[in-house]
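Repro:
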Amino acid sequence: MPFYDLTKMAHVAIGPQQSAARGAVVQGQNLEVALVRYEAHRAAKSHRDSNEQMIFVLEGRLRARIEYEVAVADPGDIIHIPANVEYELVAIEDAEVISFKSHAAGRGSPRE
């Protein structure tokens, strides 16, 4: 099916070993797109993924650490997380983002 409405899809745990986030996910052959909700003060704890990821902030604010660089991302900002780089995210307030993640060597999200 080539058309999806993320706002109407069931929400699942997003990387439950690393994150308390939940959202709707669509996976293709080489890309994963998710509409993700973070509750205030919840986090994606420090970890590395073999996948490159970009996070577009729709609502709320996130504090992001990518390696040793720290910044606050506001609505309209994009967080770029290269593959194999340590990072963590903390929601300063309730936040909603769109996550775009590549699949490395055919492997998708940690849910697999």
